[in-house]
Design brief:
- By secondary structure, this protein is an alpha+beta fold.
- It has 2 domains: 6-143 and 298-330, Thrombin, subunit H (Beta Barrel), CATH 2.40.10; 154-286, Beta Barrel (Thrombin, subunit H), CATH 2.40.10.220.
- It has helices at residues 6-16, 25-31, 67-76, 133-151, 161-167, 256-268, 325-330, and strands at residues 19-22, 39-42, 45-48, 50-54, 58-64, 79-87, 94-108, 120-127, 155-158, 173-178, 181-190, 194-200, 210-217, 222-236, 239-249, 276-281, 284-286, 304-306.
- Helix 1 (6-16) packs across helix 4.
- The longest helix is centred in the middle third of the chain and has 19 residues, at 133-151.
């Protein structure tokens, strides 16, 4: 795993400060977010809550607002601390930390499972200082992977021992399922939305067929079953028994956690593109750019919106309610998911 520098953390903070990340089920999994270890702290006491979303400048939570909490907020001048919990990849250890902030807005929460008393509220918190580096690193890596999956969607990574280590790929030997029939194969390169591999047999009969590629990753150990279509095939020089095929994944089904693995290569090799090759699609080859400009944040990503773009402001309308795994695990009413998930 790479060691994140303070310079990179500052870069993430400056670049992504105005983006809200909603803790949908997929983002909970990709970040290792632990909803059970979330709490709002005020004047020495803690209350369980659901963190609906966070940016680097504030958060939106769902919490039961009862007289004892209201009294504590009055005593503290609305100053609070929000506790986050994440499970680290390396040792599966729990990392917790507090972020200081100030409550600056309430709005009714009318989601499923809310008691008739109506105590539950959306609470908007503005951070009073830069959040801890742990939060910036976790959310920064997620956002960078999301941005790069668009910006570098056509960059393919040639699989060498070094690039495999950076990605976290357990092995190049894997299985391809075509119409339910398993075929042994060897991965040659990977991208955010595609792969090239070597198989035994005549590949032209597989062209345009739907398939599922199994890819095993380390840190954390996980097997991805990526749906796709075989878009190109060619012979392997000097080997009539082998063929090379290119697969384009179903983009809507590629998990964020897989994108974060692929982005691990770019994270550790920002200045070097010696192992990149152009992404071959059904229509031809697209060359890799050697000096791509840093884009403005793309906002049409699952669970990622402009800060304040769909959240709860003081006196504003609350987002539409729908259940999430995070809320269920926290034992509190269901938080809303981002529209379009």
């Amino acid at each position: 795993m790479s060691i994140t520098t303070s310079q990179q953390i500052s870069k993430w903070y400056d670049l992504y400060r105005a983006i809200d990340v909603t803790f949908s089920k997929e983002i909970v999994k990709a970040t290792g977010f632990s909803p059970r270890n979330v709490a709002l702290k005020c004047v020495g006491e803690q209350w369980p809550c659901v963190i609906y979303s966070t940016s680097f400048s504030g958060a939106k939570i769902i919490i039961s607002v009862k007289p004892p909490l209201i009294e504590k907020l009055k005593q503290a001048g609305n100053l609070v601390s929000l506790r986050f919990g994440f499970i680290t990849d390396e040792k599966q250890e729990l990392v917790t930390f507090f972020v200081n902030g100030k409550v600056n807005g309430f709005a009714p929460f009318n989601g499923q499972g809310v008691p008739a008393s109506g105590d539950y509220q959306y609470v908007t918190i503005e951070y009073t200082q830069r959040p801890p580096d742990d939060l910036i690193e976790i959310i920064g890596k997620l956002l960078e992977a999301s941005m790069n999956s668009t910006r570098r969607r056509d960059d393919r990574i040639l699989l060498t021992p070094e690039s495999m280590r950076r990605i976290g790929l357990a092995s190049k030997n894997t299985m391809l399922f075509v119409q339910g029939v398993p075929r042994k194969c060897i991965l040659r390169d990977l991208s955010f939305y595609g792969a090239k591999l070597i198989i035994v047999g005549i590949a032209r009969f597989l062209l345009k067929k739907e398939c599922i590629l199994s890819i095993e990753m380390d840190d954390p150990r996980e097997v991805y079953s990526l749906k796709g279509v075989i878009v190109r095939c060619e012979d392997v020089e000097g080997r009539k028994d082998l063929a090379a095929i290119a697969i384009h994944f179903s983009e809507a089904d590629v998990p964020l956690s897989f994108k974060m693995h692929i982005n691990g290569y770019f994270e550790q090799a920002r200045e070097s593109q010696t192992e990149l090759v152009s992404m071959t699609t059904a229509d031809g080859s697209v060359p890799v750019g050697s000096a791509l400009p840093q884009p403005k944040p793309t906002l049409n990503l699952p669970g990622i919106t402009p800060a304040g773009g769909s959240g709860t402001a003081a006196g504003g309308a609350a987002p539409a309610a729908a259940g999430t795994a995070a809320a269920a695990q926290a034992g509190t009413p269901a938080a809303p998911q981002t529209a379009g998930r």
